[in-house]
Design goal:
Order of helices and strands: HEEEEEHHEEEEHEEEEEEEEEEEE
Strand order of the largest sheet: 2-9-13-11-10-14
Number of helices: 4
Radius of gyration: 50 Å
Largest sheet: 6 strands, antiparallel, barrel
Mean pLDDT: 85
Strand content: 35-45%
Number of strands: 21
Structural class: alpha+beta
Number of domains: 3
Helix content: 25-40%
Length: about 400
């Protein structure tokens, strides 16, 4: 009899378990309908509105130079006689750097010096001849006065007196000739001196002289080299100041103004930044026919220079660098990443999470836009948070959202 009682109890327990499961399932179903869980919400990322700086920047490239950097060229044909400096040497204005020689010019110069000495000796002789003629005339005039007195007293004849008059006349003629000869000698000496000055000027062309004080950057010749007129001799510059020469596109050039801040970096990752300002910008565009591209394809550009705040030992003259020109800068303003802004037919807005954890549109007014951030003029304040979906599913107003991480 006892086993029969156990068999009767088993169905009752089964029905109890079944009713319990059905009740729990009904409760969960009702709970999902009346109170949706986060499993149906869209995962979003929260971005805080921060205070920061935004800059409007244009990027160009340029070539490093020293102030007054230039390449000196040969002013005549010749042979390098002596190189008086080495690369890296500093020099003063007017200092001779390289001496060129030409045997023919040297012979001509010696001939000019000899001719000048000859003309100087001739002038001295003419001066002495004039002095002698003056003395001779004075003596004859004095004798003529004496003979005039003798003639009046009857001590000499008329013929003797006339003879003395003729001697005075001849002495005057010789004096005139001596004066003319002296004038001619002086003129010859002046002409010879001019020729000598010309030769000296040509001889100075043999000397490569520093036009400014600075530092030798490169020497392109060595002793014994034959150079032609216009050949490059050496490059120099002032190491106390560095500049960047740029060719700016006409589109960007209209935005560039004198005194704007510029940031200079070597080409490469994690390069150090050097600062400078726009020192000059041309008012005319020109076509750079020295471009690596063909002249027909090169576009007109505007030349500009950046002056570094201080010289560096790392930027090598002649090397190419990147230059960021700061057109406009705003500090301590509310900013957001540009990717958080949604454009709706010119009316920008952002997504924010409502108190009910749903997506909501928040219109904003934008200001200056930088490379990665944009200024928020109105609609949000520092500390406010906006949301972005983590998936490709777009947000819709009222859509349930769930923020990841700590808010």
């Amino acid at each position: 009899m006892i086993p029969r009682k156990r068999k009767r109890g088993i169905p009752w327990i089964g029905w109890s378990v079944a009713l319990t499961i059905i009740g729990a399932g009904s409760f969960l179903g009702y709970s999902r309908v009346t109170n949706p869980t986060n499993t149906n919400a869209i995962s979003v990322n929260s971005i805080e509105v921060k205070t920061g700086t935004i800059e409007d920047i244009i990027s160009e490239s340029g070539i490093v130079e020293l102030e007054a950097q230039q390449t000196l060229k040969a002013r005549l044909d010749g042979t390098v006689g002596q190189v008086l400096v080495r690369i890296g040497d500093r020099f003063a204005t007017g200092q001779t750097l390289i001496w060129l020689e030409d045997p023919q010019r040297e012979i001509s110069t010696k001939e000019q010096n000899l001719n000048l000495q000859k003309k100087q000796l001739d002038l001295a002789a003419k001066k002495q001849g004039l002095a002698d003629a003056i003395i001779d005339l004075k003596l004859k005039e004095k004798k003529l006065q004496t003979e005039l007195q003798l003639l009046e007293k009857g001590f000499i004849s008329e013929n003797e007196f006339q003879t003395q008059q003729e001697q005075v006349r001849q002495a005057k003629s010789k004096l005139t000739q001596a004066q003319q000869a002296l004038s001619s000698a002086r003129l010859d000496l002046q002409l010879q001196e001019l020729e000598r000055q010309k030769k000296l000027a040509e001889q100075k062309k043999n000397l490569v002289i520093a036009p400014v004080s600075g530092k030798v950057l490169d020497i392109k010749v060595r002793r014994g080299d034959v150079v032609k007129l216009g050949d490059s001799i050496l490059t120099l510059g002032n190491p106390q100041q560095q500049i960047i020469r740029m060719q700016i596109s006409t589109l960007n050039a209209s935005k560039v103004k004198l005194g704007q801040e510029a940031r200079i970096r070597k080409i490469g990752p994690e390069a150090k930044v050097y600062r400078g300002i726009i020192e000059s910008i041309s008012l005319i565009a020109s076509k750079d026919n020295n471009s690596e591209n063909s002249p027909n394809s090169s576009q007109p550009t505007v030349s500009a220079t950046v002056k570094l705040d201080a010289p560096t030992q790392e930027l090598i003259p002649g090397s190419q660098v990147n230059v960021d020109i700061v057109l406009l800068q705003k500090k301590d303003i509310p900013i957001l990443p540009t990717g958080a802004i949604v454009q709706n037919f010119g009316q920008p807005f952002v997504w924010v999470k409502s108190d009910l954890s749903t997506a909501k549109k928040q219109p904003v007014t934008l200001g200056l836009e930088g490379l990665t951030n944009v200024e928020i003029i109105s609609g949000l304040k520092p500390g406010d948070k906006v949301i972005q979906p983590l998936s490709e599913q777009p947000l819709q107003p009222g859509m349930k959202v769930r923020s990841t991480g700590n808010e």
